[in-house]
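**Entry details**
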Amino acid sequence: MKLPIAALLAALLSASAEGQSIRSFTTKNGLRTTLIHVGTAKRATVALVLQTGEVDEPSFGPGLAALTADMLLQGSVSRSARQIATESSALGTKIDVRSGAMTTSVSADVESQNLPHLLSLVADLVRHPLLDTASFGRVRRHALSALDTTLHNPAELAKQQWRAIIFPNGPFGHPFAYAGTLGLLQLGHVRNVYDDNYAASRSHLYVSGVFDDAQIEKEVREIYSDWTVGLPAKPRTVRPVTNHELVTLDQPGAERSVVWIGLPVIDPADREFAKLEVADLLLSGDDSSRVSGEIAHLEGTPPHSISTIWKRRSATYWVAELNVRTANTGSAIEALFHQLEELSRVAPQERHVTRARNLLIARFDAQNSSRDGMVDLMEFMDEHSLGDGWRASYVKNIKDVSREDVRSAIAAYLDPRKMAISIVGDRAAIEPQLQKLRPILP
């Protein structure tokens, strides 16, 4: 007898969790380490996550966190940039350094036998960066080149001005770095960021895959035990505001419009969050969602997911991004508003809710079954202080979401009359279309 798809997915999740073990310990200097045993391939992923990112940038220095992170691969006291690249290549990997909203990470994936060597290499890059003038010049020139591309990208511009509406007083709402501000940043600013934020007590090391638990704990304690403890993290609460405002960046003659529409929502720790996740996927967060289908028909293109939930502690938001022909700008916004209004009044069909639930469970199962997925999941749970119970009950919480739960979540959290709206496009062509949508539009 065939199992229903939801039962099958739950069975797969249970099977994938078998044999997994997760253990954490903290060294005397405050470095937290989580060892995650997952999979059967003799490989392991290492991710050293530092609690520093855009959230720590001063108002005069947007882009400073990324500049500091980029300096890590430019050489350490004992290794040149070329030696770092050669050594990581010999290990069969490439080290990835990323600076984000709340964290900066240094990560790589290797065969299990090379894990001790990788741990040592990552430690050297983070603990002993050279931070020299010549390398800083190269990194800043690269940043300026990337900035030029960003400032010509309508999607990035729409994102920036939209964030400025909901984060009016926080680092996530700062404008992009500009050539002038990047030009004013000096190596001393990078060193200040490094000295203030790169330390053992501000870091969490994740090791995920197949490895000898006792050996890796011994290696971690030997390699990282003398790392500077550092100062406690500064207050990191950045709260968005609900602001029903419309901002348009005029690009006369533009053939397409990029629209960001959304608002702050509840955090993942909220007991209602599972309902919001299912509602998002059903509404516009998947290729087969209701809004995706409407806009695909409007544009004559294959459907694609439109919305996402940006999950940051105390700063979570839901946003839909519409990238449409200029002539379809008003109709695309109207399609989104129509579905929001309809779903806030009438619960969706059970088959649509079931599909959304099953897709979320399948994604969660895939994340639980991979090395990097487990690292991302553990980091996410740590950021939101979710605890082990959240992971254990996730599938049940999703399966429990009903048709009425979806309706009530959209009514409670996705009111278009509270949303901030950012548009990049031809204002003269767009404005007459927007007039038809008022007073829902501000």
Notes: Residues 1-18 have pLDDT under 50 and may be disordered. The domain at 246-435 is CATH 3.30.830.10 (Cytochrome Bc1 Complex; Chain A, domain 1).
